[in-house]
Design goal:
By secondary structure, the protein is mainly α. The radius of gyration is 69 Å and the shape is rod-shaped.
Length: 196
């Protein structure tokens, strides 16, 4: 059977008095109303009408089943969306909790590092002060020792200079005294001679 023959057969079925076109199929109650409207009238032949109603009833039943299945599928899709949304929300909460935990751990670790660094810095400072104080004490001791060592020869040189200066003074005084004595003696001699 070719396509033309199939088209002619479909046209004959469409011309049947019972086969009124269904504009839209709505709720199942509307589908039942359409089925009631399609019942044959009194003057029509009963046999062809019953044959035509049976396939329409089957079609309407299939449409009703399809509509019910569609509604169930729509509900299932809505449930799936809801479950998916809940799952996404749950994953978000987990991720948020992990991020908060990581943040708190990082803060704690940074605090520990800061505290350890401050302790190490204080220890380094304390040791540096101790070394500086020890160096200062050692430098003072060395300076005192150097002062004593330098003072002793200086004192000796001072004493020697004072001794020499005293000796030179005494010698100069003695010489001056001797010159005076000699000069006075000569002067007396000269004066005595002149007096005679």
């Amino acid at each position: 059977m070719n396509q033309r023959e199939q088209a002619k057969k479909a046209e004959k079925k469409a011309e049947a008095p019972v086969a009124e076109p269904v504009a839209e199929v709505g709720e199942p109650a509307e589908v039942e109303e359409l089925a009631k409207v399609q019942e044959p009238t009194e003057g029509a032949l009963v046999e062809p009408a019953e044959k035509a109603v049976e396939p329409l009833a089957e079609v309407l039943q299939r449409v009703e089943m399809a509509y019910t299945a569609y509604m169930e599928a729509e509900k299932e899709v809505a449930r799936a969306y809801k479950v998916n949304e809940q799952q996404i929300e749950k994953e978000y909460k987990k991720a948020e909790k992990r991020a908060n935990n990581a943040y708190e751990q990082n803060i704690e670790q940074a605090g520990r590092v800061l505290e350890e660094t401050e302790q190490q810095t204080r220890e380094v400072y304390r040791r540096a002060i101790e070394r500086a104080e020890a160096s200062l004490r050692q430098a003072k001791e060395q300076a005192e020792e150097a002062y004593k060592k330098a003072r002793e020869p200086a004192k000796q040189a001072y004493d020697e200079s004072v001794r020499r200066a005293l000796t030179t003074r005494n010698e100069a005084i003695e010489q001056a005294w001797a010159v005076r004595t000699e000069t006075i003696g000569r002067s007396w001699k000269t004066f005595s001679k002149e007096q005679r």
